[in-house]
Each structure stands twice: as structure tokens, then as C-alpha cells.
Amino acid sequence: MFTSQMPEKGPNFGWVMRSNNPKVQWWFKLLTMGVFLGILIVWGIDGLNVGSFQRDFVLLKVNSSGKFSPTFKDFSFTNISLRPHSVNTHQNLNQDFARKNLAPKVAPQQINLTENQGNAPDFSLEMVTNVSHKEPELVEVSRPRVHRWISAELEANYSSNLLTNWLAPGGEPCRESRTVDVNIPALDGRENVELSTGDIHEFVFHALDDSGKPHCLGGDYFETDLAGETWKSRPPVKDLGNGSYQFSLQVHPHFSGDYNLTVILLFRHYEGLKFSPERFAYDKVLRVIPVKFSKFSVELPELSQCKKSDLVRDVWSGRWTRHAKNNSCPISNDGRYRCQEPNFPCQKPWCDGPLGLLESNGWVYSTHCSFKMFSSEEAWNCLNDRWIFWWGDSNHCDTVRNILNFILGVDMKAVPRRVDMNISNPRNPSQTVRFTNIFNGHPNETGNYQGLNSLADADYRELLKGYFSGNVVPDTIIMNSGLHDGVFWSSLRHFIKGADYAASFWAEIFDGMRQRGLTPPEVIYRTTVTTGGYARRLAFNPNKMEAFNGVVLDKLRAHGLVDRVIDDFDMTYPWHYDNRCNDGVHYGRAPAKLKWRDGQIGHQYFVDLMLGHVLLNALCTR
Ligand SMILES: *[C@@H]1O[C@H](CO)[C@@H](O)[C@H](O)[C@H]1NC(C)=O
Ligand SMILES: *[C@@H]1O[C@H](CO)[C@@H](O)[C@H](O)[C@H]1NC(C)=O
Ligand SMILES: *[C@@H]1O[C@H](CO)[C@@H](O)[C@H](O)[C@H]1NC(C)=O
Ligand SMILES: *[C@@H]1O[C@H](CO)[C@@H](O)[C@H](O)[C@H]1NC(C)=O
Ligand SMILES: *[C@@H]1O[C@H](CO)[C@@H](O)[C@H](O)[C@H]1NC(C)=O
Ligand SMILES: *[C@@H]1O[C@H](CO)[C@@H](O)[C@H](O)[C@H]1NC(C)=O
Ligand SMILES: *[C@@H]1O[C@H](CO)[C@@H](O)[C@H](O)[C@H]1NC(C)=O
Ligand SMILES: *[C@@H]1O[C@H](CO)[C@@H](O)[C@H](O)[C@H]1NC(C)=O
Ligand SMILES: *[C@@H]1O[C@H](CO)[C@@H](O)[C@H](O)[C@H]1NC(C)=O
Ligand SMILES: *[C@@H]1O[C@H](CO)[C@@H](O)[C@H](O)[C@H]1NC(C)=O
After folding, report:
1. Considering every ligand atom, which ligand is closest to the CA of 133?
2. Shared domain check, 288 and 388
3. Most CB atoms closer than 10 Å: which of 342, 460, 482, 561?
4. Which atom belonging to ligand 1 lies closest to the Cα atom of 63?
């Protein structure tokens, strides 16, 4: 497998960071040419008007037919309808595979789930979990079981382990083979799959090659989706490293009903991490399995509103839940969807405050804790007199603009890639906040596709240092990175070095502030978005962005830099299968009643508004 990876461009990448080295110039040119020849990217400049979204990260139009769009293909706030339970969908999708070669099928079994049955019948499906030793009280029919929420974790030593696994040698045929399908012993061949709400249902599946034999090396990238009318989440997948994977399903008892579990094989054996991954994309829907979640007497610990101390987890495993639906909510002339009154309330515990402000027609995100929606007044009271430093890609420009327009009530059409502004509350001019936004996609604000390598530019480093060298420094830095890195770094190994350099650069700035007796800013790391639709196969595909998120966090943590993490990857994930909520790489483009990437008029922007409120939670709660 290793032989098929991108050859390394040089033995050591450290020197690239030293921009006075003449080799760098040569190397940059070569690499830059490689970028353009390799994936045919059209350079784009982030324009300042709302119609210009196409110019940033605009890429080749790809053939998107046959793509999976779980519920959003025909997302329309006016006509969402639940179609009948169709059981055999996955078999149709799998016609091309030699089913006879799959492992022995489990005989379909009628699942009987009734409210007062003590023994959760779904456990018969879970060959992985030894229930009997985990659930000693199962036999007690009357006592409701209190369970935990699903959670995900960033592996220790993330970068080095990822590299090691990626380099794992082939040799045996089952390590050299290529995955084309999977075998989910507990689900394949079953009809009317019914699971209990509340419980965490774990399933193991195995990668199979084109002759139906097990593939025995990890690193395949599966997209998983659990979607019902009022719930959307990404079931976490764990790579066991030997061709077996495990995923977990959980639905809160309030949301019992019909769901589809979808499994897509996007990339095989870390191929999404390649410099130019598009031609390696597999992108096949392997299963769409209808699953009924039936109410069961299991209690989950109630979510509480996020406190600062909650926002330290590196990886989240949240869900979007729906609490309203206006069936006649057309797009307005200004591109907005005002489906509920602005003060339409949140339903506890899923969020707190006015849900109507999200303009999501009832959807809201929560994770291991839930979020408050900020009114303009509350947001101003919190931000007054503060200095927030934003360091990230063009998604930051969108998020800052959306926070200004939607939350703070400041009319601003666009936020430039480099700007330092003192903004005052239009309703109370005594309140001001300072926002500094510095683009990190390229050392030149008009450039693209350098990412963290921007820090190789001495002038750019000085520009950043300038904001932290005075007697007053920002009180918070909100960082993101990833999309431009996805296009720049020739291999994972190089990116790890680049991320390590970026972390040490900031650590040095922070040390400087401490030495001058100043309190360094709090650092909020906001992970990269999950790229959507056609962009799922490109240089910044979800496989690579998820790995890059892990590497950056690993390196920032190693330098003691991160105070809070906001996992925007998880937040955007359920909406990334098509371009209804994104243009591929941005979820926060300004509302506009114009033809969108997917051919429809207008687009949904609530996923980024949610991020705006989540950021305010991180900035404002104790
Ligand atoms: C797109 O791909 C599908 C199947 O992969 C093929 O049938 C179709 O002709 C392609 N369309 C274009 C415009 O290339
Ligand atoms: C939505 O449904 C209504 C009636 O059910 C129909 O008249 C209308 O054309 C539909 N709109 C779309 C966009 O399909
Ligand atoms: C599941 O997928 C099928 C096929 O796409 C669709 O008809 C059905 O409405 C979906 N069910 C849910 C609950 O989303
Ligand atoms: C399911 O269980 C209930 C209660 O134990 C029983 O009355 C019912 O007949 C069962 N249904 C099936 C289909 O087995
Ligand atoms: C499950 O747990 C029980 C009790 O601890 C044990 O006897 C049994 O061997 C376990 N089964 C498996 C498959 O691990
Ligand atoms: C992580 O790396 C450190 C240093 O190489 C090592 O001591 C530690 O055991 C590793 N931890 C894990 C969980 O691999
Ligand atoms: C794969 O690894 C897991 C975890 O180490 C192990 O439990 C499982 O038995 C292995 N599967 C195969 C097919 O070797
Ligand atoms: C649904 O949306 C329409 C259009 O914005 C609005 O006029 C109507 O009042 C809304 N209905 C409800 C029940 O909120
Ligand atoms: C914003 O205000 C601060 C403090 O009053 C000042 O130092 C800074 O120069 C101002 N920035 C701009 C762009 O006006
Ligand atoms: C930034 O790029 C533009 C256009 O490519 C160029 O004109 C300008 O000189 C560059 N600025 C710097 C500081 O390199």
C-alpha cells in the first residue's frame, strides 16, 4: 500500500519554513504549478459582494449524478414528506456486487419491541456487544435504565498514529486488496430493523474486496448518516485497523420514529489524504437501511446548557433536532427564510432562547451540552469592550458577517479577508467591540491555497505578531484552518510538520506576551467544515479535513495553546451530502435569492448561524 502513496517531495520539510532558503522559491513554484496542473483549480478572489461566492474555491464542475443526498436532494421547506418505509433499498443499491460471495446471511427475524419488555430486543442485532456483562440489571423490568450519550474521542498521539497506520505495510493479499463493499452481519438481509431509543447500539462491519473476501487493513473512509424527520446525526465510526469497523447508533426517546441509516464508502485506504485525491474517490452508497426507533424506557442524562468547561472536547458527536416546521415558508426577496417568528422559543433541553433567530425552520444543533441562542442585546452586553482576533479562512469572513448582521444588528455587506474594526452597537453607541480578522489561506490576502504555510512568509508573520506586541492584546483568538491546507500540503507528513510549526509560532507569541506581564488571549479552535456535495471528492474532502482537524488539535494541544474547541466538522456533517446548505466549502454565504450551486433559487445559511451562536456561547458563558 505504501508504494502507491504520493512520493515524498523531500526528505525533510522543515526547511520550507525558512523562507530565506533559495530552495524554497524553487520548491514553491514547482509545488504551486503542481497544484494547478494537478487539480485544475481556478484561482479565486474573495469578492466583496454577496453574489461572488462562486469565485472563492471555485473548482471544476464534476459529474454529480448518482450522488447521495439523504433527505436534502429535494430539500424544500414547503414540501417535506415522509415516504413509506422501504425495506429493500440497500439491496437495489448493491446489485452490482456479488451478493453470493458475502458472508453467510443472518436469517431475517421479526423483531418485537413493546414498551414494557424488559429485554431490549435489539440486542439480538448486536453481535459485537456482550450485553450480559454490561447490563446486569436488564432483567429488572420495572427500573428504567439510565444510559450515557454517545461520544467520540480524539485518539492520543493522533498525528503519529495516523501516520503509522497510513504507512502500515501490505504484503498479504488481504492487505493489498481494495474494498468495494461491506458486510454488516447484524443488519444485512434483515427486514424491519427496529431498535430501542436511548440505548447505544453498536454494530461491527467488515470491508470486502471485489471477490467478496475480507479486506484486512484499515483506513477506508466511510460516511455514515442517521436521518429521520426530526433528527440528523453522524453515527461515529471507529476503525479497528484490520478491515473491521464499528459504528454506534443512538436516538433520544423524544425522537422515536422512522430513520434511514446510510453508509457510503468515500475513499479507500487513506486515499482521501492524497495530494490530488479526486481520481481515487470511490463515493458509492453501500447501504440505505430503514431503521425504526421505538420508544423504550431508557433515560438519558438530560443535556444542560454548555458552560465554558464543557467546550474542551476535541471531537463532538452531536445531532440536529427539529422542533418546528412551517409548511409554507418561501424564500424572501432578500434570500431569507423567516419560517417562524424571531422569538419562537427553543424547546428545552435542546437549546435555550429564541430558536426563530436561526431561520432554520425548526432545526437546532446540540452536542454533549446544548446552546443558548443570543438576542442582540445579550450578545452586545457580552462582547462590549472586548477584542476578538479571528485567524482563519474565508469561512471566518462569512461567520463574522453573519454574527454582525444576524445577531449584533450591524448592517455590513461583507467582511474583508484582512480587517481591523471597532464596531459600535447601532442601538447603544456606548457599546463597542473590536474584531480583527486576518485571513490564513495565503500570506497575500488576494491569494489562495497556502493554508498554514502562510506562516513561511516573514512579512505575514510580522503582520500577525504586530497585533500581539502592544500593551493591549486581543482577549480571544478564534482560529480555524484546513481548506487551503488541503490543497497545499503534498502529504500528511508535511502537513504534520506545518501544523507543528504553526503551533510553535503561536506558542512563541504567547510566551512573549507572558514575558511582558500580559495575559495571553484565550484560544478557541473551531474545526474545519465538512466539505459538501461535489467538494467531497476534492483536495479538501472530508476524509482529509477530519484528519487535518485532528493533527492541528494534536499540535496545538502539545504546545498548550487550546482553551476551547468548537467542532464545526460535526456540526456541518449532517448537511454535507449535497450543496443545499453549502457551496462546497462555505456554509455561511450571505442569503441571496439567486441561483445557487445546486440549481435551486436561494440556499440555507442556518448551519453557519448556529456556529455564530455556538461561538457566542464559548465567548460569553462562564
Ligand atoms: C455522469 O455519470 C453517470 C454515471 O456515473 C453517467 O451515466 C452520466 O452519463 C455522466 N454524465 C455526464 C454529463 O458525464
Ligand atoms: C408543494 O406541494 C404543493 C401541494 O402539495 C404543490 O402544489 C407544490 O407545487 C409543491 N411545491 C414543490 C416545490 O414541489
Ligand atoms: C429513507 O430513504 C428512502 C429512499 O430514499 C425514502 O423514500 C424515505 O423517505 C427515507 N426515510 C426517512 C425516514 O428519511
Ligand atoms: C410481541 O410481544 C407482545 C408482548 O409480549 C405479544 O403480545 C405480541 O404477540 C408479539 N408480537 C409478535 C409479532 O411476536
Ligand atoms: C459475555 O459475558 C459473559 C458474562 O461475563 C461471559 O460468560 C461470556 O463468555 C461473554 N461472551 C462473549 C462472547 O464474550
Ligand atoms: C504517545 O506518545 C508518547 C511519546 O511518544 C508515548 O509515551 C505514549 O505512550 C503514547 N501514548 C499512546 C496512547 O500511544
Ligand atoms: C479486528 O480487530 C478487533 C480489535 O482489535 C478485533 O476485536 C477483531 O476480532 C478483529 N477482526 C478480525 C476479522 O480480525
Ligand atoms: C410560515 O411562514 C410564512 C412565510 O414567512 C409566514 O407568513 C407564516 O406566518 C408562517 N407560519 C407560522 C405558523 O409561523
Ligand atoms: C480600535 O480601537 C482601539 C482602542 O481604542 C485602537 O487602538 C485601534 O486603533 C482602533 N482600531 C481601528 C481600526 O480603528
Ligand atoms: C498580492 O497579490 C497581488 C496580486 O497577485 C499583487 O499585485 C500584490 O503585489 C501582492 N502583494 C504582496 C504584498 O505580495
Report:
1. 5
2. no
3. 482
4. 1
To test the pocket of ligand 1, the residue of 63, 284, 285, 534 to mutate (highest count of ligand atoms within 8 Å of its CB) is 63
pLDDT means over runs of 10, the chain (622 residues): 37 36 44 39 31 36 41 31 29 29 30 30 34 34 65 94 93 95 94 92 96 97 96 97 96 95 97 97 95 88 95 97 93 96 96 97 97 98 98 97 98 96 98 98 95 98 98 98 97 97 98 98 98 96 98 98 98 96 96 94 97 98 90
Task: For residues 274 and 396, state if they share a domain.
Answer: no
Torsional sign, CA 259, 286, 248, 205: positive
Q: What is the dihedral of CA 592, 595, 601, 604, to 10 degrees?
A: -50
Task: Tell me the CA–centroid distance for residue 585 and ligand 10, in Å.
Answer: 24
What's the confidence (pLDDT) of residue 266?
Answer: 97
- Asked if residue 301 belongs to a domain, the reply is no
Of 294, 328, 359, the domain-final residue = 294
Rg (CA), the chain: 24
Cβ atoms of residues 265 and 294 within 8 Å:
no
Q: What is the CATH number of the domain that holds 359?
A: 3.40.50.1110
444 lines ligand 10 (CB under 6 A): yes
Where a domain ends, among 239, 267, 294?
Answer: 294
Let me know whether 518 and 564 are in one domain: yes
pLDDT at 143: 43
- How far apart (Å, rounded) are the C-alpha atoms in residues 166 and 155? 15
Query: Has residue 455 been placed in a domain?
Result: yes
- What is the extent of the structural domain holding 508? 308-620
The total number of structural domains in the chain stands at 2
Question: What are the C-alpha distances in Å from 585 to residues 92, 330, 348, 482, 608?
Answer: 31, 25, 32, 11, 12
Nearest bound ligand to CA 81?
A: 3
Residues 473 and 496 in one domain: yes
Cβ 157 under 6 angstroms from ligand 6: yes
Rounded to an integer, what distance in angstroms lies between the CA atom of residue 217 and that of residue 195? Answer: 30
Q: Where are the alpha helices (H) located in 360-516, listed in sequence order?
A: 376-383, 394-402, 458-466, 483-488, 492-515
The Å distance, Cα 253 to ligand 3 centre, comes to: 20
- Strand, coil or helix: 335: coil
410 and 537 within one domain? yes
CA triplet 230, 231, 235: central angle to 5 degrees?
A: 165
Instruction: Let me know whether 283 and 162 are in one domain.
Output: yes
Residue 228 lies in a domain: yes
Which positions ≥6 away from 92 have C-beta within 8 Å? none
- Indicate the pTM of the whole model: 0.78
Is 78's C-beta closer than 6 angstroms to any atom of ligand 2? yes
The domain that contains 281 carries what CATH number? 2.60.40.10
Residue 75 lies in a domain: no
Which residues have CB under 6 Å of ligand 4? Answer: 110, 112, 114
Residues 6+ apart with CB under 8 A from 294: 113, 194, 195, 196, 197, 256
